[in-house]
Amino acid sequence: MASKNTFIAIMIGILHIAVPAATANQPNIVIFLADDMGYGDLSSYGHPTQEWGPIDDLAREGLRFTSMYTASSLCSPSRAALLTGRLPVRIGMYGYQMNLTPLSPKGLPDEEITLAEALKDVGYSTGMVGKWHLGINGWIPMDGKYLPYRNGFDYVGTNLPYTNLWSCDESQSHVAKPQSFGCYLYRNATIIQQPFSHENLTRTLVEDAKTFIRQHQTHIEKPFFFYMSFAHVHVSLFSSKEFDGSSKRGMYGDNIREMSWGVGEVMSEIKRLGMDDNTLVLFSSDNGGHSELCNEGGDNGIFRGGKANYFEGGLRVPGIMRWPGHISPGIVSSTVISQMDLFPTLVTMVGGEVPIDRKIDGLNMLSHLPLNISSADDMETTPKPTELDIRPLFFYCNDNLFAVRYGAFKIHYQTMPVKSRLEYGQTDTCLEAGFPTQNYFNCLWCGSFCVEKHDPPLIYNVEADPGETYPLNPKLYGDLLADLSDVVNKHKAGLEPGDPIFSSFAPSSIPCCNPDNPGCSCNYP
């Protein structure tokens, strides 16, 4: 017995050595991510009728970015880029379907290193709830090959491995009844509802988040990273009874209010447990609002376009960062920042190693953020001010380069047609009071007939003309185009696209909680 106890003691000692203790420079990290929320949807970002809420409080108490970009204007590619710091085209997040579907036997590749995995390497506990949309099963039914628990998340609560589809609507506004295909609610790797019920969905995500946070309130022993990815405000829109009719803005505003309430509940728990000063919080959206959905789509403010196209409305999103004692309240920053920057910035800040065996497209922005911290001894990878001023952001539609943000300019090599809100309102797809009759896009496929190529490219000064209303005369910007041509050529020379993940299909990949039931429906407690 003595030898067995000695062995156990030795193993415990090894485990303690393997997991480094947290330091003062290792805050808890919480990322709140909205789905399809537009830049102009929040009161703190200028919406004239949306009610102020806890998300706006984060902006008032911290840092609000006015030039935060996603890597893509669609869900799966943008989420993959956020969690890996890499362009979707490098990962293989492109192909025929534009997004992962339940028919996809592929997902976020195993060889990719997620933010959760990188933070685990320096002692973090990791957890997530909500929308995933980075893959479900492989070629074998119900193997869960690409679910969050296989990508660095220790705790996975209630989650939507796919998304909140139009066909999941329970109100009978759009479909007669919710459909089983695509409408999955999981608890970690197990289906618990198919199709899922929206009733109490947000509250359930909130309670799961609180459970994780309570389990990790001893911050000094081990910090945590928590990823809370809301089902709001992707169609089908939903809100609990207490929020129905609560917004002057209508159903969409009700959705924003419920999501904001969820953020407030999680923040209240963090404060109650005395972890507020040790917690860095970020809020953003995976892409711009879906403009074609009339009043059930997001508001992209002054920006042109929205979800699925590559004007500013599809790519520029709200970005908020809060950390008491380290970020002064009420700061507004116009620094151009990509969500891909979060990976190298956060990993470096907490003393981790940014992978050097692959191209990381995000930049370590520590020296360019108004953070009062004494971390990050190695600042060599941080961009110099002059480099940051002309730092290019490349925007791909599948494996086609559509646009580049370069300094004050946005250059479009290819564009999709977009309509104004007035034009949407005058179509037969928007009924009285802006009610959409179908879930649609003006143009979705990157290489289709609706895509227009531009030679010379369109040039906009998005600092002077953020709405991309007035294209500049390319004859007057020859030097800019020549410089950018060199930048693009260098970028493409070093680009190795991954295999197209969205082009594989397998019926065996479709989740089914009850194969003996032809409708594949279930509701497990």
Please, could you describe this protein's structure?
The two termini are 43 Å apart. By secondary structure, the chain is α/β, with parallel strands linked by helices. Strands 1, 2, 3, 4, 5, 6, 7, 8, 9, 10, 11 and 18 form a twelve-stranded mixed beta sheet that branches. A four-stranded antiparallel beta sheet has the order 12-13-14-17, with no helix packed on it. β15 (430-431) and β16 form a beta hairpin. Residues 1-23 and 375-380 have low confidence and may be disordered. The chain is built from twelve helices and 18 strands. The protein folds into two domains: 34-218 and 235-249 and 270-285 and 324-389 and 507-514, Alkaline Phosphatase, subunit A, CATH 3.40.720.10; 397-498, Arylsulfatase, C-terminal domain (2-Layer Sandwich), CATH 3.30.1120. The longest helix is centred in the middle third of the chain and has 22 residues, at 251-272. The chain has helices at 2-18, 54-61, 75-84, 88-91, 115-120, 201-215, 251-272, 312-315, 342-349, 385-389, 421-425, 478-493; strands at residues 28-34, 63-69, 125-131, 155-160, 185-187, 190-194, 224-229, 279-285, 316-322, 331-333, 337-338, 392-397, 400-406, 409-415, 430-431, 435-436, 452-461, 522-523. α6 packs parallel to α7.
